[in-house]
Design a protein that fits this description.
Elements: H1 31-49, E1 54-55, E2 58-59, E3 61-64, E4 69-72, E5 75-77, H2 82-103, H3 106-111, H4 113-130, H5 132-141, H6 148-173, H7 175-182, H8 190-210, H9 213-218, H10 220-228, E6 235-238, H11 240-243, H12 263-266, H13 287-298, E7 306-309, H14 311-314, H15 324-345, E8 350-356, E9 363-364, E10 370-380, E11 386-393, E12 399-401, E13 407-409, E14 414-423, E15 432-440, E16 446-454, E17 471-473
Antiparallel strand pairs: 1-2, 3-4, 4-5, 6-7, 8-10, 9-10, 10-14, 11-13, 11-15, 12-14, 15-16, 16-17
Helix pairs in contact: 2-15, 4-5, 4-6, 6-7, 6-8
The protein binds iron/sulfur cluster (SF4) (2 copies).
Amino acid sequence: MVAPVAPGRVLPTLNEDGTRRWLRPKPSPGAWLTRRTVVAWLLIFVYIAIPHVFMNGKPAMLLDLQRREFTFFGTTFLPTDTLLLMLLAISTVIAVFLASALAGRVWCGWGCPQTVYMEFVYRPIERLFEGGARGSAQLDRERRHFHPRRLAKLAVYLVISSFLAHTFLAYFVGWDTVTHWVFGSPGAHPVGFTIVTITTIAMLLDFTYFREQVCMVACPYGRWQSALLDNDSLIVAYDYNRGEPRGKGKDREGKGDCVDCQACVTTCPTGIDIRNGLQMECIHCTQCMDACDAVMQKIGKPVGLIRYSSRAALAGKGKHFLRTRTVLYPVAFAAVFGTFLYQLTHKDAADITLLGAAGAPFTLEPDGSVVNQLRVRVANRTGTAQAYAVEVLGAEHLKVIAPMSPLTVQPGRTETMPVFVTLPPEEFDEGIRTVTVRVTDGVRFDGKFAYRLAGPMRDRDDSHDRSEQGGERK
Ligand code: SF4
Ligand code: SF4
């Protein structure tokens, strides 16, 4: 059966008959490539270096999922920091919106790991082994997928992907642990070994097979583009007025500056023709700008036929920096990020959570006294170990047993200690007695929290449905 043929190209990476159209973009040396190379290698260096950098005695970045603790540049966010992390996430989203409104897909072309590693690590290695873009295209045509040069390239890809996967893992467990695991048996750390293996395979598949399809099909950011950009956003654009009507050959009477040489198309890593206008597939990598500038220099025309511009500017409507979104986004960012910074810098030296014991809310002693067990959870936010003492105040005939007090908590760690509070039944009003729990390390932290103890109802004998307990800062 013959496969149906599409009336036109559906995706730049698909032929009309649905087979994969392998893209082998030609590199285009130029000023923009030089700038992007500097930025890309700086980012690669930062990515590899961060797990080795320590700040305030902690890794610069550690995403400890097991303990639910996230360290960013020496500041550790504990599981109790949900609000802070939420504010940080919202700030990041608004910053992305702002960057897109101002500079289009600058992230895709300059900062996204997919672009950085594909264009500055994996693709140059491919060109080295396969004899440039032409050599790769030749091997494609001859269907020599297992040519020795391709197998050698894959071996190098494997080594690089494995190294990057280990670096990736170091962001979650620390570089020392990764090193320890590398020199140990995989059976001693099956989870780490599995994560590294899966990450290595995923990277290999991505940079060997999926490539630009990740940007076109999998990444949601490209799809948001139409919502995030407006007519004044900076984009990589072809100057239609100047370039058209395009035409090849010597007789250029009445023709625009575009000589239809296709250099901008053959260099495009997503296989599109920028002359067709703004397209979802364009990652704003600037390669077509360099390619076209070289052509313009060769034919003695001004550079910039393809350049950073905006749809409004190209239509002769001028540049408008101040727009609704370029005003609202910074205001929203300042408000959310400002709140984040305020909350971060005004955090207590410890986070205290008061919890009731599992099971019955209270028990009765033979003499009728009421015993409540509560658990005091202490998160030490300081950089040194602290000993936290607990006392309970607010009732005359109170007896408190806190067998673990004072409790020593290591920096950035969370520990829980049980506290038993005994009161005569007449101290309870309608089955409730509010007391004050004081937790202090004697130096940097001294907090008082209201806590409701549960007890028997005086006029009714069933109060055991009071299972909800809680403490609040006074
Ligand atoms: S059209 Fe130009 S900027 Fe867009 S992806 Fe292709 S080469 Fe890069
Ligand atoms: S590189 Fe420039 S001149 Fe050549 S086809 Fe593209 S836009 Fe036209």
